[in-house]
Structure formats: structure tokens, C-alpha cells
């Protein structure tokens, strides 16, 4: 590459010629060193390549010598030639490509196919790795990890901020709501995810998305105060409530095939029937935003948590307030039912977990300090195990009654915005402020034994323990493997 400082003023040819002579000498020395280094590195079978390289180098040096006088002269009236520069770049690029192709092996051509072939290409590359031929334990572990089949779908990355996610009740489809008001539908599998369609539903941020009980329709609510019911396949709008609330709607909950409820930023809760044009019931008992709504299998009570620290329960059939809890000095952010719907557990902004006996929602019966960080999401995995997440970006498993921290299920680099569990119960999905949706296989909880109240445990270790779905392993696992290897070696002796 010719540097701009090599071009001198034509009024001073002597200085330009001296610089050119020095430059040519340096180029000759550099090329000679490069050729010698290549000759030492290449084998005898590559002598033809070395001779060709030497010939090209001598030719280039000769060109440099013949053009050195011309390079010292500069025409101030001349213009830059884009054609000559592009030709030079193209020639240099072709040389680089020819050099790469001449040194490529059949394995290298496979590498190109792997890059363009997606998930299928990676399997071809794995076949070339032989774990038995490696002596390094670290390399063996890496090869084993690559060969291990995926237990969960790969990550989904979006351009827009993800506000909510929801699994389809019958199919392997997940709906992803975004801050632009759209809902993206993806078909997920361990082999890869397929984008089905993006439904443009709202003019402002879509804050919550839910599927109908039969999975045919998508229900959404938005900051623009509207509610939409859209056909999932045809994208046809079936129902539109334009000014459903006076405040932006924050949460939506499907009760059955006809009923659903919504809650807004001002604390108003409304009950809707798809067979009517307007709401069938509205109630405002709190002054802060609605954080979550929940019903049990019986579907007689609607439980509502809010940012001002109240748990409000509504009688759906009677269309009236059932009971409201004592105020808590923290936001009640999430909840779930456990122990055969006999226990209601509520999470808070301070990381506490409060247990209420079903039907006795005035005050909690038990309290667990939780994880000492803000908690915004809770998903029941089994009848006694919940996954909770929040601002720290870590998904933790918690055993209910008695309370125990079971460990870390998964993690994001930024706060977690939403959680949901698949129809099979084997996967949970999480979205974070990094515009990503990640999947975690939690099937191992099916074999998890029940915990006794008097059972000993180490709370410090439990909070930092990585479960099988986590992307990180535990240091204790490494040392236990070393102990096993030591025992095997002693047995061989």
C-alpha cells in the first residue's frame, strides 16, 4: 500500500528520489524476509508454491523499481481515478482469493458450507472432531458439549423491545409482543425457530398478549387504551375495543372461552364478555397500576395485585368485591397458586414471598425473604415449585411450603421483563431488556423430590447453585469430577 506521505511536491525532486530509494530498499528487505520465512515454514512438497511466490515477489519489486521515478513526480492537475483504484483493489482481492483457494483443503470447503448451512452445517463440523484423539481435558469437554444435542430451542433476538411473551395452549408456538405494538409469532423447536408472521395490532406499545383457550385468537392490550382480538392464522381483526379504559391498559387475563379481564395504570379492573360490546363489570379499589391478575381452576374469584401494595379479590359471578388485603409497604408484583390451589404465593418488589391460605386473602399466613432483589415475574412449574425473576436478570427456582431456594434456572445480562411456561410444562421462556427471548428446559423438576420442613439445608449455597438448565456449571461439580477420577485411578492401581 502506497502511503500518502510518499507523494512529494514536484518542486523538490531530490528529496522525493531519496525517499523512493529508501522505500524500495525497505520493500526489498521485507519481501526477502517474508519469502525466507515462508520457505522455512513450508514443506518440501510446497517447493513449487515457494518458487511461484519468489517469482511474483521479484516481479513486484521490479515494477516498484521501474515506477519509482514516476512516483516521485506529482501532477497537481491530475484527478483521482476510481477505475484504477477499483482495478487495483479487485486485482489484490483476486490474488488473495486465489491464494486462499490454492491452499484450501477439502475440509476447508466443508467449512464454507457450514457457514451458509445454518444448524445443519454445524453438525458436519462436529463430525470432524474426535474426542478420543485429544489429550487435553478442556478440549475434550468442549467437543463433548458441541456434540451434545440441544435440550431447548435457540434464542430469539428481536430488533424492538419485548414487552410480553405467551405460549400457545396447544401448539409449539410462542407470541412475542413488542413496544412498537406488533405481535410476532414463532414456531419453536430444539433444531431451530421459524418466524411465522408478525401481526400489526396497536399504534402504541402492546403491553400484554394472551391466547384464547382454544388457541385460535390472540388477545392484546396496549398503551393506546385499546383491546384487540385477532385471528392467529388470517390476522383478521375479530373484536376491537377502541377506548376500553380511561388509562393505558397494563394487564390482560383470559378467564374462559368468553370472559377476560383487564387492568390499567390507574388501578381500574374491568371484566369483559366476547359476546357483548362493552364491559360487564368495572371496579376501582386501588390507586396504582395493576401488576397481575389471576384465577384458579374453579374460575370463581379474580385476584388482582397492584403497585400500591394491595391484594384485591373480586367475585366474578356476583360482579362485586370479595375482599381486599391489608396494605403492604412494597409493591405486590406477581403471584401463583400451589398445593392444589390451597396456597396463594405473592412476590414483591423487595424480593419477599407472602403465602395466603386460599379464601383468606386479608393477610398472609407465612413469609419468606426470597432472593433479596426486586421480583416482577412468577411462573408455577409444578404444584410446589415456582420460577421467579426480576431486575437482577436471574431466573431462580423456589420450593413452596416449605420455602427453599433450589438454585438458578437461567440468566440474562439485563433485567427480565416476562416469563411463561409451555403447554407441555417442559420449557419456560423469558425475555429481557436486551430484546431477546430465551428458552430453558425444566423437565428435570418432574423428578424433584418433596422437601421436608425439618430437612437441613444451606441457604447461602442454594442461592448460587446452578441447575441443569443454567448456562453455567458449579465449581463443586468440577472438584467432584476430579475426586471421581482420583478414586478410579486408585482402584486401577
From TrEMBL:
- The ranges of the WD repeats are 242-282, 409-443
Q: Where is this region: Disordered?
A: 1-24, 37-134
Q: Which PROSITE patterns match?
A: WD_REPEATS_1, WD_REPEATS_2, WD_REPEATS_REGION
**Keyword Disulfide bond found:** no
- Keywords from the named record: Repeat, WD repeat
Q: Iron as a keyword? A: no
Q: Where is the composition biased (Acidic residues)?
A: 12-24, 42-51, 60-73
Name one matching Pfam family.
WDR55
Family membership noted in the UniProt record: Belongs to the WD repeat WDR55 family.
PANTHER family, sorted: WD REPEAT-CONTAINING PROTEIN 55 (PTHR44019:SF20)
The protein, known as: WD repeat-containing protein 55 homolog
Organism of origin is Musca domestica
Amino acid at each position: 500500500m502506497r502511503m500518502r506521505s510518499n507523494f512529494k511536491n514536484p518542486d523538490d525532486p531530490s528529496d522525493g528520489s531519496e525517499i523512493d530509494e529508501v522505500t524500495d530498499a525497505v520493500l526489498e528487505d521485507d519481501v526477502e524476509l517474508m519469502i525466507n520465512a515462508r520457505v522455512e515454514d513450508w514443506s518440501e512438497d510446497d517447493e513449487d508454491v515457494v518458487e511461484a511466490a519468489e517469482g511474483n515477489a521479484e516481479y513486484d519489486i521490479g515494477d516498484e523499481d521501474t515506477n519509482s521515478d514516476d512516483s516521485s513526480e506529482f501532477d497537481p492537475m491530475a484527478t483521482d481515478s476510481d477505475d484504477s483504484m477499483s482495478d487495483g483493489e479487485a486485482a489484490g482481492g483476486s490474488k488473495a482469493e486465489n491464494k486462499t483457494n490454492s491452499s484450501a483443503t477439502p475440509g476447508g470447503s466443508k467449512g464454507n458450507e457450514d457457514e451458509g448451512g445454518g444448524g445443519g452445517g454445524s453438525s458436519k463440523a462436529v463430525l470432524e472432531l474426535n474426542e478420543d484423539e485429544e489429550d487435553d481435558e478442556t478440549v475434550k469437554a468442549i467437543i463433548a458439549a458441541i456434540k451434545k444435542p440441544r435440550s431447548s430451542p435457540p434464542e430469539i433476538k428481536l430488533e424492538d423491545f419485548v414487552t410480553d411473551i405467551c405460549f400457545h395452549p396447544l401448539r409449539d408456538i410462542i407470541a412475542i409482543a413488542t413496544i412498537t405494538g406488533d405481535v410476532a409469532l414463532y414456531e419453536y423447536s430444539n433444531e431451530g425457530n421459524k418466524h411465522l408472521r408478525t401481526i400489526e395490532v396497536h399504534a402504541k406499545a402492546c403491553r400484554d398478549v394472551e391466547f384464547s383457550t382454544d388457541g385460535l385468537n390472540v388477545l392484546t392490550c396496549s398503551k393506546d387504551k385499546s383491546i384487540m382480538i385477532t385471528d392467529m392464522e388470517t390476522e383478521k381483526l375479530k373484536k376491537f375495543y377502541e377506548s376500553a379504559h380511561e388509562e393505558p391498559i397494563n394487564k390482560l387475563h383470559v378467564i374462559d372461552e368468553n370472559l377476560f379481564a383487564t387492568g390499567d395504570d390507574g388501578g381500574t379492573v374491568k371484566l369483559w364478555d366476547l359476546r357483548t360490546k362493552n364491559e360487564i363489570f368495572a371496579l376501582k379499589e386501588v390507586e396504582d397500576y395493576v401488576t397481575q391478575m389471576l384465577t384458579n381452576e374453579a374460575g370463581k374469584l379474580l385476584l388482582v395485585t397492584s403497585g400500591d401494595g394491595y391484594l384485591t379479590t373480586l367475585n366474578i359471578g356476583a360482579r362485586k368485591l370479595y375482599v381486599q388485603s391489608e396494605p403492604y409497604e412494597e409493591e405486590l408484583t406477581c403471584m401463583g397458586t400451589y398445593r392444589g390451589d390451597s396456597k396463594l404465593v405473592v412476590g414483591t418488589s423487595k424480593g419477599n414471598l407472602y403465602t395466603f391460605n386460599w379464601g383468606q386473602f386479608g393477610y398472609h399466613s407465612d413469609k419468606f425473604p426470597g432472593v433479596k432483589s426486586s421480583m416482577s415475574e412468577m411462573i408455577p412449574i409444578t404444584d410446589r415449585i415456582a420460577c421467579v425473576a426480576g431486575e437482577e436478570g436471574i431466573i431462580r427456582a423456589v420450593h413452596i411450603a416449605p420455602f427453599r431456594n433450589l438454585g438458578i434456572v437461567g440468566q440474562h445480562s439485563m433485567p427480565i421483563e416476562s416469563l411463561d411456561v409451555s403447554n407441555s410444562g417442559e420449557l419456560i421462556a423469558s425475555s429481557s431488556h436486551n430484546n431477546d427471548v430465551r428458552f430453558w428446559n425444566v423437565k428435570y423438576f418432574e423428578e424433584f423430590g418433596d422437601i421436608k420442613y425439618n430437612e437441613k439445608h444451606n441457604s447461602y449455597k442454594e442461592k448460587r447453585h446452578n441447575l441443569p438448565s443454567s448456562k453455567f456449571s458449579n465449581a463443586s461439580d468440577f472438584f467432584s469430577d476430579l475426586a471421581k477420577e482420583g478414586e478410579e485411578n486408585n482402584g486401577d492401581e
